[in-house]
Amino acid sequence: GGVEREWDEWNDGERLRAWWCALCIFFFLCSFFFNDTATTEIYTLSLHDALPILGLTFVVKKGDHLPQLNAVTIPEGIDDAAVRSALLNDFDLEIGAGLGTLAGKVWRIGLMGHAASRKNILFCISALESVMTGMGADIHYGVAVNAAMEVLKDV
Fold first, then answer.
1. d(CA 146, CA 53)
2. For the residues 13-24, what does the mean pLDDT come to?
3. Fewest beta carbons within 10 Å, which of 52, 98, 117, 153?
4. Residues β-bridged to residue 69
5. β-strands 69-73, 96-97: how paired?
6. pLDDT at 93
7. Rounded to 10 degrees, what is the CA torsion of 67, 71, 76, 80?
8. Is the confidence at residue 6, as pLDDT, over 70?
9. pLDDT-based confidence at 81, cuts 50/70/90?
10. Of residues 53, 122, 136, 128, the one with CA closest to residue 88
11. What is the pLDDT of residues 29-71, one digit of tens each?
């Protein structure tokens, strides 16, 4: 006969999911260990100065937040899915939708890994400004980016 194979309690799909989860955890932890947390905090402060100019208010107040995770309320009259779609299609920028009871009410902006850089912060703010202005939001173009640049001038 043939060679008998030992029984394996994990099939290939489960093994792949386990590797995927391990990789995600690794990248999440790397964002804490290899990015300067103090710098990430400064990036978050730049968002706290810039995004309210666009009518986006933070769900969690300044002292109680994690710098890597930022949830902001979507202004009245702004179409959540249309903005996220335009950001993705026109700027290759993805922000997270609200989940559960916050679906359609908030956006999630992450500052982890590659996203946590001066260039990407300013790009995100500028893209949001452009898309929201194009959808009729009453925004003074360039003011939010300038507010962020003021915070980031020494970074």
1. 10
2. 74
3. 153
4. 110
5. unpaired
6. 93
7. 120
8. no
9. very high
10. 128
11. 665 555 566 677 788 888 889 999 999 999 988 777 777 788 9
pTM over 0.90: no
In terms of residues, how long is the chain?
A: 155
Strand partners, 106: 73
Residue 136 CA: distances (Å) to CA of 93, 96, 108, 142: 20, 22, 22, 15
Dig out the tokens for 75 from the structure. 């202004």
Task: Find where tokens 């690794």 sit.
Answer: 26
The tokens for 61 are: 């107040």
Pair 111, 29: CB distance under 8 Å: no
Helix ranges restricted to H, the chain? 12-33, 37-50, 80-91, 118-134, 143-152
